[in-house]
Design a protein that fits this description.
Distance between the termini: 26 Å
Shape: globular
Strand order of the largest sheet: 4-5-6-7-8-9-10
Number of helices: 0
Strand content: over 45%
Largest sheet: 7 strands, antiparallel
Radius of gyration: 16 Å
Number of strands: 17
């Protein structure tokens, strides 16, 4: 029933499937929300500053207050399992200009850096399965897609040879939108 939208200088939160919305204003930590993820119960949120190097923040009270978890990256993607225990964040390092993947399996308390497959630096999209057991990366640079079942420690290629992006997840499945030279896309759905 809970929904969240990053809306620039605020985060919009709905507790009634989007019928009505409440605004959570920007914080001193993040002045412009562009990415946000929320737990199923609406209490835990994850966001990161995307306009340059800045903080990755977590809220445990539906966006009323935020706690900084790390800084020094321009955050490009965040994801969270429904219970809020597993989180994923991707940021571009301000020192070496490389994309870095960080994973938490304890409600955002501690974070572990993981290696992206092939040390790629130009990813198209990232996603997490609904149960948090699988991470997915689609690369712009190599036109390959990878899946990890161990929090990003190891990766296996699952599809390659064409541009693709994750379009969402539902019921522990990942969806892959395969772009090609024609005017249509092919949607792939995982069955495991």
């Amino acid at each position: 029933q809970y929904r969240v939208v990053a809306a620039g200088h605020s985060v919009l939160v709905s507790s009634d499937y989007g019928v009505s919305w409440q605004m959570r204003p920007a914080t001193p930590l993040i002045s412009n929300f562009k990415i946000v993820a929320m737990s199923e119960n609406g209490q835990t949120m994850l966001s990161g500053y995307s306009d340059g190097p800045g903080p990755l923040v977590v809220s445990y009270d539906s966006g009323m207050t935020w706690v900084e978890k790390m800084s020094g990256y321009m955050w490009t993607a965040v994801a969270m399992s429904p219970d809020g225990m597993k989180m994923m964040a991707v940021g571009i390092d301000s020192v070496d200009d490389q994309e870095k993947l960080f994973v938490s399996d304890d409600n955002g308390v501690s974070w572990h850096q993981r290696t992206l497959p092939g040390n790629q630096i130009d990813t198209r999209s990232f996603a997490m399965s609904d149960d948090g057991s699988k991470l997915f990366v689609a690369s712009k640079e190599t036109d390959e897609q990878y899946i990890s079942s161990d929090d990003g420690v190891s990766w296996a290629a699952v599809h390659n040879g064409s541009q693709a992006a994750v379009s969402g997840s539902l019921a522990h499945r990942l969806y892959l939108d395969d772009f090609n030279d024609t005017s249509y896309s092919t949607i792939y759905t995982s069955v495991d």
